[in-house]
UniProtKB/TrEMBL annotation:
Record organism: Malikia granosa
Pfam families assigned to the protein according to its UniProt record, in alphabetical order: Terminase_5 (PF06056), Terminase_6C (PF17289), Terminase_6N (PF03237)
Region (Disordered): 1-25, 115-141
Top-level taxon in the UniProt lineage: Bacteria
Domain Terminase large subunit gp17-like C-terminal: 425-583
Name of the protein in its database record: Terminase
Residues covered by the Terminase ATPase subunit N-terminal domain: 24-81
Keyword terms: Viral release from host cell
Lineage: Bacteria, Pseudomonadati, Pseudomonadota, Betaproteobacteria, Burkholderiales
Length: 601
């Protein structure tokens, strides 16, 4: 019979707090002793008699404790301290995760001490030994066990809170993420994919609107492997030593019927002919072992991908009585949610990123740089209705091409990307609170040919001299035949400096008539799909989308604007592009215009 079958407690509950306090004091004293403190100093710090400390030391044999036991004690104390905190910071969570992994590592050491088998130290050793033996010298893109551990540690330690959520949900069959600009999504998913490829051997496929954008994944992956563990990855596709293939595809993914693996679809809300490309992409990941990840900043509600995001596509296939209700509000999706179509959806705004530990932004400055509509779309994940835009997304998408495949005569990484063929430059100068836009435009090589945007740049915080110097550097890399600059207000200062090294620069003073001429010319060019720019340049597309028809201050006439004021940004890249396009007459290219280029050359 138990000594406590009368249901009485094994000790007086009033003594429990005192016993817990004594146990805590004993643990703290032991940890300090193992750190090299003398018993006398420990007693003075903790207000405990030296004789008591000596009794604890002898009873628990502190001096005989092995190094691993001392480390385990320190880990235990720190973990208990962190777990007990009510309000934990992101740093606390990272430390808890790190300490937890050290506890797991020490447990493997304990098992190794008992069995002496190497597999206890490395859980992957059996799988490695079971496979065919290969010489490490012959392995290309090889990661050793230590390097894999370094890579995984560097990966986990680099994540913000919202990226940790993406990692926790990485085994979802389908993820769709609506995100703010510049929060490190491409950077994160490149790392996630590499970790998955190394640890599972699964193929990874990166889809983007253009090959140039897809290769950003490749740059991140190569950089991560080199920085974290010194491995130099190479090849296209990258083939790891375990057989996993990493493919980087642009629009040519439409013909990539043979690929299979996990796929990552970057900026899918800006892709032309999304339905066609998505059918091929879905086929790549048809087997249940593969994962599909879509992530993008929002574009227009008229985009083909919106029906997939909203659940409309799912409901179309079902009787009205069986259709699901999709809650797409930020409150519902901020932490992620799996809807009835089994897609895990997540929204990460600029504020969510900040709360997740991302301190890369100055939100007050961004509010000044972007007007409210741009801020809501680019940073708060709100879709736009482009039915009121002068340049609808459907027309702009016809101008978006995979420049790496389409332009054989353009070498973007050479000293002279376009050789000695003439280019036109459009510039929209920086005003208070916004950025300056610069566009390098290749005019048509034949009658009614296409204009090609070779480069686009945005500058912020530069004075007159800095802006003029940016234009001068372009003239050193290209055979510039024309420069068009907005000279309204502050632009006059930039124009005066540019004319010192390019006397024939054209100043364009924005008025009702001149803006109308600029927009009509651009409408004609874009409407006929005579403008081409790389599909990954969503900032240029968005800049055109932002331009709307508005009334003048008097209300008596129609003008065009993008919410520009002293406090807000404006569609600087679009206006810069139009400042270059206007060099061709409204009716199209003429012989006199061609003569101007030839004479200047």
């Amino acid at each position: 019979m138990s000594d406590h079958d009368d249901d009485s407690p094994p000790f007086d509950t009033e003594e429990a707090p005192a016993m817990a306090q004594q146990a805590d004091s004993r643990r703290r004293a032991r940890d300090l002793y193992w750190q090299g403190w003398r018993l006398t100093d420990i007693g003075e710090l903790l207000k405990i008699p030296r004789t008591t400390l000596h009794g604890w030391k002898e009873a628990e044999q502190w001096d005989k404790a092995a190094p691993i036991q001392r480390v385990e004690g320190a880990l235990e104390s720190r973990l208990v301290q962190l777990i007990a905190k009510d309000a934990k910071t992101g740093t606390d969570f990272k430390e808890i995760d790190l300490l937890g992994r050290q506890v797991e590592r020490l447990a493997r050491v304990r098992n190794y001490e008992q069995t002496g088998k190497e597999k206890e130290l490395n859980p992957n050793i059996e799988r490695r030994n079971a496979g065919p033996k290969r010489s490490r010298r012959e392995d290309k893109n090889f990661f050793s066990e230590d390097q894999v551990e370094q890579l995984e540690s560097a990966f986990r330690d680099s994540l913000f809170g919202y990226q940790q959520r993406w990692w926790r949900e990485s085994q979802q069959r389908t993820r769709m993420i609506l995100k703010s600009r510049q929060i490190g999504a491409t950077w994160y998913f490149a790392r996630e994919a590499l970790i998955d490829a190394i640890t599972t051997g699964r193929n990874q496929i990166f889809l983007s609107a253009s090959k140039a954008q897809a290769h950003i994944f490749k740059q991140y992956i190569i950089g991560f492997a080199h920085e974290a563990c010194g491995v130099e990855l190479s090849g296209d596709p990258i083939v790891l030593a375990n057989g996993a293939h990493l493919y980087f595809l642009g629009t040519n993914a439409r013909t990539a019927q043979g690929y299979h693996g996990n796929f990552y679809f970057d900026e899918f809300f800006w892709t032309h002919a999304f339905e066609v490309l998505n059918k091929v992409a879905s086929g790549m990941a048809m087997h249940k072992q593969w994962r599909k990840t879509y992530f993008s900043t929002p574009s227009s509600i008229q985009h083909e991908a919106h029906s997939l995001w909203s659940g409309e596509r799912f409901n179309k296939k079902r009787p009205k009585a069986e259709r699901a209700q999709f809650d797409l509000t930020h409150d519902r999706l901020a932490d992620g949610h799996v809807a009835e179509d089994r897609i895990w959806r997540n929204i990460v705004t600029i504020y969510d990123a900040e709360r997740g530990g991302c301190d890369l932004f100055d939100l007050d400055e961004l509010k000044l740089e972007y007007n409210p509509e741009e801020f809501a779309n680019l940073l708060m994940c709100e879709f736009i209705d482009d039915s009121h835009s002068i340049f609808p997304l459907a027309e702009l998408q016809k101008c978006m091409v995979d420049s790496w495949d389409a332009w054989d005569d353009v070498k973007p990484f050479s000293q002279r990307p376009y050789g000695f063929l003439p280019v036109w430059v459009g510039y929209d100068p920086s005003h208070t609170g916004d950025s300056a836009g610069l566009v390098v435009l290749a005019p048509p090589l034949g009658d009614k040919g296409a204009f090609r945007v070779l480069e686009r740049h945005q500058f912020k915080g530069m004075d007159f001299e800095g802006q003029a110097e940016a234009i001068r550097k372009v003239t050193q890399r290209y055979n510039v035949a024309y420069i068009g600059i907005d000279t309204t207000g502050i632009g006059q200062g930039v124009y005066q400096l540019v004319t010192k090294f390019f006397p024939t620069a054209r100043g364009i003073n924005y008025s009702l008539d001149s803006k109308t001429q600029l927009v009509l010319k651009a409408r004609s060019v874009i409407g006929k799909a005579r403008l081409q720019f790389d599909s990954s340049w969503v900032d240029l597309a968005h800049s055109f989308l932002a331009i709307k028809k508005t009334l003048t201050a008097s209300g008596n006439a129609v003008t065009f604007s993008a919410g520009r004021s002293a406090e807000t940004g404006h569609a600087d890249l679009a206006w810069a592009c139009m400042n270059a396009l206007v060099n061709e007459p409204l009716e199209g290219q003429t012989s006199s215009n061609q003569s101007f280029i030839e004479i200047y050359d």
